[in-house]
Amino acid sequence: MRVSLRLGPERHRKVRSLLLRPLSFQRIRGERPRALWHPRRTILILISQEPATIYLDWASTTPPDRDALIEATEIAVAFPGNPSSPHAPGLQAKEKLEEARQGVRRRLCPVGSGNRLVFTGSGSEADAIPLLALVRKASKDGTRPHILVTAIEHAAIHEQLPVLKRLGIEATLVKPGADGRVDPAAFEAALRPETEAVFAMAVNNETGAVQPVAEIAKAVADRAARIGKRRPRVHVDAVQALGKLPFAPAALGIDSAAFSGHKFRGPHGVGALWLGRDIEPLVLGGGQEGGVRPGTESLQAVWAFRICLDRALDRFEVRLAAARSLERRLVEGLLDMGAMPLPLGRGPDDPRYSPYIISAAFPGLSGEVFVRALSAGCREAPEGVAVSTGSACSHNSRDKGRRVLEAMGLDKGLAFSSIRISTGDLTTAGDIETFLAAARAMHRALRA
Amino acid sequence: MEQPALYLVKVGEILLKLGNRRDFENRLKTDIRKRLSGMPHQVEYQPGRFFVQVAADRAGEAEEILSRTPGINGWARALRTEKTFVEIERAALAIAGAANVGATTFKVESRRSDKSFPLGSYELSKELGHSILEANPGLRVDLHEPGFTINVEIRDRAFIYGNPTRGVRGLPVGTQGRGLLLLSGGIDSPVAGYMMAKRGLDLEAMYFHAWPYTSKEAHDKVKDLARVLSGYTGGITLWTVPFTDIQMALKKGAREDLTTLMMRAAMMEIAHAFAARRRDTCIVTGESLGQVASQTAQNLRFTQFPTDLPVFRPLIGMDKEETIAIARAIGSFDISVRPFEDCCVIFSPKHPLLKADLERERASYEALGLGRLIEEAMAGIEKFEVPFSERIPSGR
Q: pTM of this prediction?
């Protein structure tokens, strides 16, 4: 008797573990069938896994690199000491920790520079450290500092601002132009004598717009010099840049940059903060990471970060070329079906935008409904396609995407109908074609 | 072995309808027995009240059930003892101790049907009153408006109980037939359902779903609301109508300021056909006068035109705060405020018509020619049973 089962990932895992005796001599469609022995007869059960949803949401997170994570875990198991302990296991662990750190620093800064690299628990935490350092500084000086922040920062920065305001730190939001990029001149104009810090992301996570951070840093430094004030600190959220677009913080004239491991196939729960200048953090504790980020260091996390970053940067040019090619086809396909890549006027191979991220508006449809329908699948894509939108229908949710798009001056209706498609290392041309076919069919079916 | 939990259950309003009283009391007894069927139980009938007994470890669940059965005015946990003063006193002290929290005054009321009991009712009350005062020095006796009352009944045994916990009151479910509740994920319709269940109306619920415009989470939310109502109705069936095609046809074919009204008329047409098929006696909605544009008097007249069944709108004269208070009490509020919409904003007109003209808009509705789509929607109705055992207990 022969039974053929096609199962979702969780059931597949469970059923597979229940069945005994893989039949080693036979492969059917690439998968070894497993046999179940019944007292009276042999039942051959062939199980294969349902094809997984086509994943086009790499900007939110990326599939982890299994080998890298396993290697990092092996290291953690081999060096189990607390890096702060003065005994042999501790010292060995510390050495291994520093080895990871040096590995990452080498990829980010010229050798021998005095820059620091601090590992954190996330990209959000790496953003929070310089923000909260302002609080500590303000309470020490008794000043009421002012900061400049783009209006399109990630929630990790944007959502902190109201609390900072209550603590006496005022922020001026600098809006982008219609192209989704902020203008260095706008920062110059908004700079005040009491401006202490500037926060500007390297690549916007909703639109992919590349921000001119080096020019911004220069503009504020020059202006500060002209009015005889100290140069404000410049912090760059580079979460969507590292591993995707060239990013060398030391050469940009900035003071700190935040990174996140799970954006380049590392595990969740690890990020890093590059520091060009020392910082006095608000949150203190056991003194780890040079006192900047308390908490026992995780060798597993930092090594996964390092290995994945190495892998991403080793094949950087190849990957970027592939991403550009996918972007080209995507933009072409979107325009073809009457969808509008955002911001309006974005074309393929436009150096102002990361090829890995693209927002598009589908007139007549709500972004949230479209995401839901695409995820559930259709004839053109039975396994479903995963994309993202920031424009949720519900009044209760925080419309993160809408905030960014509307800050660009985009029409509310278009912002409401937008989705975000983001690609990565494992995205194939076939994935893009399937998405385009599904999007076209569904747009036609659902547009109201 | 621990004594079983015994409850005195007071029935209220049904006493007023003397002609139907036996029938209603029987239905209530049947309903109580059905709701308690998940545990060993005994129900003993007496004129105007029941004694319900369950195992002590099921007391909590039994109390939750008694609190939410329409037709029950109130219930009180009772202790049953031998007819000796010592035992009665001990029970009275226990109940007084438990009831003491917050109250400063009390009285004891005794009744005896066994005239052979040595103490007269008045004497018994007095003695017990003394005992209670001794044990609780902070208390005073107040014979007119006591904070709590210790009741003692001497029959075959002695029964002692304190203040009754308030029940749902109203009439036993089903004594008024069954109605079709138009249930959405909002705050109002579950409250409307509860209020009618309380009046003895059995309910089944209908939900209009427009996937992918409405999410699975919105549908799950409505299922959870049905689970809350199931605790009051003793079980409920939720019928889900696939409404997407009708919604899209309305968006394309209806004048923009009329889309919501046409949508509600289509829902009413489907509800009527379904209720007629199922022999429901009425339709129930959570509409409240003036709350939204579609709920002006003229608009309500229009949207109800497809049905000649009575449309009960128990919230019609209530304000939002009152409705929210009830929603919290029955445990539907936290579910209703989950952020999953049951109508995509795409379908809401920016400037809805406030006063529909019945004749004119009736003609507009007929002109839309929704007949076939309505048939298809009805053919696709899905059933979701929520037996009483799957109810969500309220937060109370």
A: 0.81
